[in-house]
Amino acid sequence: MKIGLFIPCFMNELYPDICMATLKILKDQNLDVDYPMSQTCCGQPMANSGCSKDVETLAKQFVENFKDYDYIVAPSGSCVSMVKEHYAPFFENSSDYNKVKTSIYEICEFLHDILKVEKFDVSFPHKVGIHNSCHGHRMLKLGSASELNIPYQSKLKNLLSLVKDIEIVSLKRDDECCGFGGTFCVTEEDISVAMGKDRIKDHLDSHAKVITGADMSCLMHMDGIINRDNENIKVMHIVEILAGVKYE
């Protein structure tokens, strides 16, 4: 099984340790992992801003980079959703794109659905709240959306439950948006910040010490608010916990 590791551009620049934790998890599963050096942005920021020509260029480059792998894995639900849901207009009956579309997975769904991991040999003795990012939660079905009134399930919670000594806290609103929304946080700053504050308060009220999730963009947004307001809580991408990174 040959894995193509896709790392979102902002994570590559700002969160290299999380990128390395992603690689560690895949390597710990004895997988053959490759990192295409010519990869770049998936095009999501351009799509949010209406720059369709730029998206087309990036989409075609992405498919060319990753078409030959058995699976493509990324630590970002929103970037995976971009590839799966928004590239189609640039490809007409393309076998390469169809293969990429059905082969790309956010790392939690890959671990949960494809590898069916049964344990992680790590301990994380802290109270953790799960932030379910909108793209991963609703588009990739990493969890059940409350508005659908269907039985609750969470792939993130299932994976975290395999970590020793962890305590997953209950939130009042399991799937509320953090307010980031890509360029939304720039064009609608006040609303974005208010939503982020609400999301953080829910975790604080539940006595969580860590907010975790599968999208670093959302966690980055909340981390900025936490640091500005000097709140006593920390954000960690889920791969950090699964890889055994210590809470500091």
Question: Care to describe what's here?
Answer:
It is a single chain. This protein has helices at residues 9-14, 16-28, 44-48, 52-66, 77-86, 95-103, 107-114, 134-139, 155-160, 184-187, 189-205, 216-229, 238-242; strands at residues 2-5, 32-34, 71-74, 104-106, 127-131, 167-168, 210-213, 234-237. By secondary structure, the chain is an alpha/beta fold. It has a 4-stranded parallel beta sheet with strand order 2-1-3-4, sandwiched between helices. It comes from Malaciobacter marinus. This is L-lactate dehydrogenase complex protein LldE.
Describe the sheet with the most strands. 4 strands, parallel
Largest beta sheet: strand ordering: 2-1-3-4
General shape: globular
State the low-pLDDT regions, or none: none
Radius of gyration: 18 Å
| Fraction of helical residues | 40-55%
The average pLDDT is: 93
Q: Write down the secondary-structure element order.
A: EHHEHHEHHEHEHHEHHEHEH
- Taking the alpha carbons of the first and last residues, their distance comes to 35 Å
- SS-based class: alpha/beta
Strand content: 5-15%
**Total strands:** 8
Count of helix runs: 13
Could you name the key traits of this structure?
248 residues, alpha/beta, four-stranded parallel sheet, 13 helices, globular, Cys_rich_dom, oxidoreductase activity, L-lactate dehydrogenase complex protein LldE
